[in-house]
Design a protein that fits this description.
The complex is a heterotrimer of chains A (271), B (269) and C (264). Chain A has 271 residues and is mainly alpha-helical. Chain A is 75% helix and 3% strand. Chain A has ten helices and two strands. In chain A, strand 1 and strand 2 form a beta hairpin. Chain A starts with a strand and ends with a helix. Chain B contains ten helices and ten strands. Chains in contact: A-B, A-C, B-C.
Chain lengths: 271, 269, 264
């Protein structure tokens, strides 16, 4: 009880001594860590440039307007590619993520001691590595192009989809599964009738959600050569063509808004 | 027809849920299994179709031992044993018809069932069963749109479309109101008589058990302590099964309810 | 009753025209999309060898050859993660308050929501490119980028948590005659604090992963080292870096879920 006796009076305190000390310790070390890290960042920063930043920003800003509208003719194909990278990448990821999720879920994994840890490792590896890094790797293996982008998006999305899906599988109502088992159904029928209908809403929701994220991600894959509108962005940045950059950013903004609208609509229609 | 020989189940936690249970159920008999919660009723019927693996003893269905069957043999035997669950255990996002047809899964191949291509004979049976339980107009409704009593009727149809020889019924009325409970119990027992089905019904409601079953088995702490006809359930016997309590109240309530009961017979048929 | 009644499951889309329209539309899109993917089989065949090298490299990662680069890059990534998460949280809180419809007046609400949308629309790398152009190369641009991305994530989810609080508790505090700050401290904060801590820990983990990427465009961290390794086809070094990233992410996930369990 955080109440202490001081001579005759009872003194109420918000926390008892031990909690109070831990709180102070956490705050102290947290602040110290932050300050130390900040110093490290600060040492590597040219403060002269940073102080000059408002001027530079104003300069770039003035060069960025007005956008070069004619350039839009060259953006339709890259935009189409971007859309395809996101969509096909997501589809490929879904196909691959489903078996991984079933292997990773405690209640469906055929071998909890061997295959389950492997599936979990696949999930964490896929999630740890950004799609841009996957692209970097794939471009150096497959060469530049849309294909590298599609596979990169798929590799990054497997972990995301499989993680949410296997958590959903672990939370299903086992009674429904038992009921299907008692009819003498085979293993695959138990999955198709007892498990799939229960996880379908999650699956659809997660897929649409991931597609939406992937649209965003696929806008930058071109920076490392993996196709899409990022290629044009890179090219325009290289020649410092700021009015083109503005137009590209504007198009990305509209695409992302469109995908957000579409995915919200799809979620409502299906669930 | 069904024979349990020294059936025992010890859970990994060390709980001995069943202790050497011997029980024989002849064809066509409706048997009620009563006992306090935790007595092992649920474990007992789940050991028969091996949703729970028994740890000792044997289960014989028409002379065939079930405890050592491999998966394909187990599937073949499970087709002959229908089961009805406490919380209905319908696949909630499938339609009523799909739930009923899922009772035939043991007889159709995977792809046929995946594309919902069931043989016409199964579909006819499904419709007539739905008609029998009074849900024919609901065939295309999703299971989660139904009320508790309606869901349990779907559960009954799903168990019966298996054309089982034995029906395992786990607390069919535990989630239902009193009136629906007796309607469901009546439906189950009638269907058993029509089809000469044997049934083991787990039920904690003594009055319902006495009203609908031909034979009562009392289970207490994993052992059978009573086995006989419904009339033999005296206060002493009930005390033995459930512990000290005033049992006259239960029986009084039961007799007054049976009078009311005749009135609502027609509305269910 | 009819002796033989056929039954088909109810189709997902009941209007047949719409159903077929959507089916054909999807098929057409798939055909066009797949058709527009150019696959250079010769190039892939040539690359297969490299792919195998890369997988072989995972079995024998090379930590030693470029260890100074790797350790400096990783340390910088971790430092950036800490700084940007803290800055992101500090800025997110007022924006989240402003983006909660039950707390803020409409103009402030719209302003804060606009910031959140802007931060969520653009991929971190695009922001990083702009910040590098403005603030110069180095971790400072990276820190700003990741802080900005943190705001979009944290402020949005925190605002949702605030909008879903139980208003009764706030009213009870207000009815004691509490000031606005006291009301915030006693009526709102206790309800959203566990959520804030959980989200912050989650974001710490995401920010580490992001800090590995912004380096690709010159905003500091391990990304630059990784980029160099791939450019030189030093797959064993790249594999070592990737293994370290995966290891750190696993450790972070494990410890943050342990902390979250204690807090909630």
């Amino acid at each position: 009880m955080p109440v202490e006796m001081n001579s005759q009076e009872k003194i109420w305190k918000h926390r008892d001594r031990k909690t109070q000390l831990t709180h102070w310790a956490i705050w102290f070390f947290g602040t110290a860590l932050f300050v130390w890290c900040w110093q490290l960042v600060s040492e590597k920063t040219e403060w002269f440039f940073v102080l000059d930043a408002p001027t530079i920003a104003a300069d770039i800003g003035s060069r960025m307007v007005p956008p070069r509208w004619e350039y839009i003719d060259k953006l339709w194909v890259p935009l189409w590619d971007t859309l395809n990278i996101a969509t096909l990448g997501t589809l490929l990821a879904l196909v691959l993520a489903v078996p991984v999720a079933f292997l990773a879920a405690r209640n469906t994994s055929p071998s909890p001691t061997l295959l389950r840890p492997i599936a979990l490792l696949v999930i964490v590896s896929s999630r740890s590595i950004n799609s841009l890094i996957w692209s970097l790797l794939l471009v150096s293996i497959l060469g530049p192009g849309v294909l590298a982008g599609i596979i990169a998006i798929a590799l990054r999305s497997i972990g995301f989809v499989a993680k949410l899906l296997y958590e959903a599988i672990e939370e299903i109502d086992e009674n429904q599964v038992e009921a299907i088992k008692t009819t003498g159904a085979s293993r695959s029928q138990v999955i198709a009738y007892g498990i799939v209908p229960q996880i379908l809403p999650t699956f659809v929701g997660v897929s649409v959600f991931r597609w939406d994220i992937n649209i965003r991600e696929s806008t930058v894959l071109g920076l490392v050569g993996a196709g899409g509108i990022g290629l044009q962005l890179q090219a325009s940045l290289n020649i410092l063509a700021w009015p083109q950059v503005t137009l590209i950013l504007l198009m990305i903004f509209l695409t992302v808004l469109f995908s957000e609208w579409l995915s919200a609509k799809a979620r409502h229609a299906i669930i | 027809m069904l024979e349990l020989k020294k059936l025992g189940k010890k859970y990994r936690t060390g709980d001995r849920a069943l202790k050497e249970v011997d029980l024989t159920v002849p064809a066509g008999q409706v048997l009620a299994l009563i006992g306090p919660s935790g007595a092992g009723k649920s474990t007992l019927i789940r050991c028969i179709n091996r949703l729970v693996e028994p740890t000792s003893g044997d289960v014989l269905l028409e002379g065939e031992s079930l405890t050592h069957l491999r998966s394909s043999g187990l599937r073949r035997v499970r087709r002959k044993i229908g089961m009805i669950f406490q919380e209905y255990a319908l696949v909630e996002r499938l339609s009523v018809m799909e739930n009923v047809l899922s009772g035939r899964l043991g007889y159709v191949g995977f792809w046929a069932s995946y594309f919902r291509r069931f043989p016409q004979s199964d579909i006819d049976t499904a419709f007539s069963l739905l008609d029998r339980v009074g849900l024919e107009p609901m065939a295309d409704k999703r299971a989660d749109e139904l009320s508790g009593g309606q869901r349990q009727r779907v559960g009954i149809a799903r168990a019966l479309i298996q054309k089982p020889e034995l029906l395992l019924v786990d607390e069919p009325t535990a989630s239902l109101d009193p009136k629906t409970s007796r309607q469901i119990m009546r439906l189950i027992t009638e269907l058993c008589t029509e089809r000469k089905l044997a049934a083991i019904i787990n039920i904690h409601d003594v009055a319902l058990a006495q009203m609908f079953a031909q034979r009562i088995v009392g289970l207490q702490a994993g052992s059978i302590v009573y086995d006989g006809n419904p009339e033999g359930l005296t206060s002493d016997v009930l005390t033995q099964i459930y512990g000290e309590e005033d049992w006259t109240a239960v029986r009084k309530q039961q007799s007054s309810e049976s009078e009311r009961d005749i009135g609502d017979l027609e509305e269910n048929l | 009753m009819n002796a033989s009644r056929t039954w088909r499951p109810k189709p997902f889309i009941e209007n047949p025209k719409l159903r077929w329209g959507i089916t054909i539309g999807v098929l057409l899109y798939m055909l066009l999309a797949l058709g527009s993917v150019e696959v250079n089989w010769m190039r892939i065949y040539a690359g297969l060898d490299r792919g195998l090298q890369f997988f072989a490299a995972f079995a024998q990662p090379n930590f030693t050859e470029r260890w100074t680069d790797i350790s400096e890059g990783l340390a910088e990534s971790l430092v950036m993660t800490v700084v940007s998460t803290v800055i992101g949280i500090i800025i997110s809180i007022p924006i989240a308050l402003g983006a909660s419809r039950n707390l803020a007046p409409l103009p402030i609400y719209l302003f804060c929501r606009a910031i959140i949308t802007l931060s969520r629309t653009f991929q971190e790398v695009i922001i990083a490119i702009l910040f590098v152009a403005i603030f110069g190369f180095g971790p400072f641009a990276g820190v700003l980028t990741i802080s900005f991305a943190t705001i979009g994530f944290l402020a949005k989810l925190l605002a949702e948590a605030i909008e879903n609080i139980d208003p009764g508790q706030g009213e009870a505090v207000r009815s004691t005659g509490a000031r606005w700050w006291q009301w915030l401290n006693y009526g709102i904060q206790p309800q959203v604090m566990p959520r804030l801590i959980g989200l912050s820990l989650y974001r710490l983990d995401i920010n580490f992963r992001e800090s590995a990427v912004v380096g690709l465009v010159g905003a500091g961290g391990i990304g630059a080292t990784l980029n160099t390794a791939f450019d030189r086809y030093e797959f064993d070094t790249a594999a070592a870096i990737l293994i370290l990233i995966i290891g750190i992410v696993m450790f972070a996930e494990y410890s943050s879920s342990a902390i979250r369990k204690r807090v909630q």
